[in-house]
Amino acid sequence: MLKRTSAEEIRRELASRIISGVLPPGIALDETQLAAEFAVSRTPVREALRLLAASGLIDQKPHAKALVAKPDADVLAGMFEVMGYLEALCAGLCATMMRANEREALDALHAEMAAIVHAGDAARYAEANDAFHAAIYEGAHNTYLNDITRSTRQRLQPFRRAQFGALGRLAKSHAEHGAVVEAILRGDREAAEHAMRQHISIVENAYQQLVGR
Amino acid sequence: MLKRTSAEEIRRELASRIISGVLPPGIALDETQLAAEFAVSRTPVREALRLLAASGLIDQKPHAKALVAKPDADVLAGMFEVMGYLEALCAGLCATMMRANEREALDALHAEMAAIVHAGDAARYAEANDAFHAAIYEGAHNTYLNDITRSTRQRLQPFRRAQFGALGRLAKSHAEHGAVVEAILRGDREAAEHAMRQHISIVENAYQQLVGR
DNA sequence: GATGATTTGTACGTATGTATA
DNA sequence: ATATACATACGTACAAATCAT
User: Fold this and answer.
1) Which residues 47 to 86 of A reach strand D, CB within 7 A?
2) What CATH code is carried by the domain that includes residue B41?
3) Which residue is nearest to nucleotide C19 (CA to C1')?
């Protein structure tokens, strides 16, 4: 999927800014301004915006500025719920589909994360956490499921910031991961699903508490 | 989400052609040609193609013609599998989330479909079938789940043609729907999930048999 | 393998619709 | 409420890359 077009580069950059929170939900995106910033014409910017709109990261109305997506509270809740199901499905499939080397890698990653928790390094944990979940998406061995789960996670990212900010979240998260890993290694699909579902629910609740709307 | 731009109109039209099979998987889409056909410049056509690419209906590579998506057999199998899970999830949620009037409407629709089966009208059944599944997506009361399930169904549509062609498929499909409806009306989430999962699996198998690759 | 024809990618100008004073 | 300013939607022109020959 390597696209050496400026439209694609711009799409990546804007997506990254939205996901990272540099461009917060609700903010307007000005084509002319972006064109100037990226030193290109408005054409590739427009195409990048169209892609972002299709992937749900921004909202577009005809003849109006594009806005970084800002889903209603209920839509957001629904997205978190779906994300829980999707991740649980991935974890469940891992229990039956993962190859031996994938299981070992997951176990090793989980062990590494224990050290990070002990060091209390929230930033590194967040990074490793992404890798952990990515490994589980991969382990399900279903390309499409991988795609939509990652996409959902991406779209929710702007609303999940600071999830490891609160003290104790790191250790809790790691413990929950432990239950998932153990079930997967045991080949227990139901348990893996359940453990992951619990894990994601808790993350959601952490969000609800944080933003409180 | 009403967009009165020509790009959006073109997107709709092309999506419709792809879903209906007028534009079969693997076929190339020429921007200039499409622009001439729709009597517009290439600009809105290009934007329409970008949207279709983002939604997965076409594949785009830089400097190459866009191709109507033609997933590998294993990717396709994965998509059908995911579709089964998504529909099952919707059905399960319907069992607990549907309002009384929604339950009545679903039951009524199912009854209407019995008559269509009796008449052996495959075309009308296909139409009613879409409405049936749409009602279940709606009944889950989760906007995002509704979106991704419809999107998945859409993307699979080109590979599901003639699913009601074989004699006896109509009656079988209707019977399977019956199990779903009964479980939903009873408020039995697990049973609704299971029944829908079975239903979708069978559709998938019908495909596998048909195309055989 | 080089070259010409064709197609996509980008720039820019004009028109149309939206929003704010 | 009307008008003015401004951003987007579309058309046209050119540049760059691909693929046939």
Assistant:
1) 60-66
2) 1.10.10.10
3) A64
Which 8-state DSSP code applies to residue B90? H
A41 CA to D21 C1' distance (Å): 35
Q: Is residue A95 part of a domain?
A: yes
Query: Is the same domain home to A12 and A63?
Result: yes
> Which one-letter DSSP state was computed for residue A165?
T
Residues A64 and A90 in one domain: no
Q: Which residue is nearest to nucleotide D19 (CA to C1')?
A: B64
What stretch of H or E contains A58?
strand A58-59
Q: Are both A12 and A94 inside the same structural domain?
A: no
Among residues B68, B97, B118, the one where a domain terminates is B68
B134 domain residue, yes or no: yes
Question: What is the number of structural domains in chain A?
Answer: 2
| Domain span at B110 | 73-211
Query: To probe the interface with B, which of A63, A144, A204 has the most B CB atoms within 10 Å?
Result: A144
Residue B1 maps to a domain = no
Q: Which of B110, B130, B116, B82 is nearest to B184 (CA)?
A: B110
Q: Which residue of B has its CA nearest to A42?
A: B43
Residue ranges of alpha helices (H) inside chain A are 6-20, 31-38, 42-54, 73-97, 100-119, 122-139, 143-156, 169-186, 189-211
pTM: predicted TM-score of the whole model, two decimal places: 0.92
pLDDT digits (tens, 9 = 90+) for B185-203: 999 999 999 999 999 877 6
A16 and A100, same domain (yes or no) = no
Note the CA–C1' distance, A32 to D4, in angstroms: 20
Is B122 in the same domain as B190? Answer: yes
* Positive or negative: CA dihedral B112, B113, B118, B122: positive
Determine, yes or no, domain membership for A2: no
Is B154 near chain A, with CB under 8 Å? no
Q: Average of pLDDT values for B25-38?
A: 95
> Does B162 lie in the same domain as B147?
yes
Q: Which residue of A has its CA nearest to B72?
A: A143
Which nucleotide is nearest, taking the CA of residue B35 and each C1'? D11
CB contact under 8 A, B82 and A148: yes
- Closest residue on chain B to A50 (Cα): B51
Q: Are residues B145 and B116 in the same domain?
A: yes
Separation of alpha carbons A186 and A109, rounded Å: 17
Up-side HSE of residue A46: CA atoms within 13 Å toward CB?
16
What tens digit of pLDDT does each residue of B56-70 get?
Answer: 999 999 999 999 999
Report the nucleotide nearest the CA of residue A46, measured to C1': D8
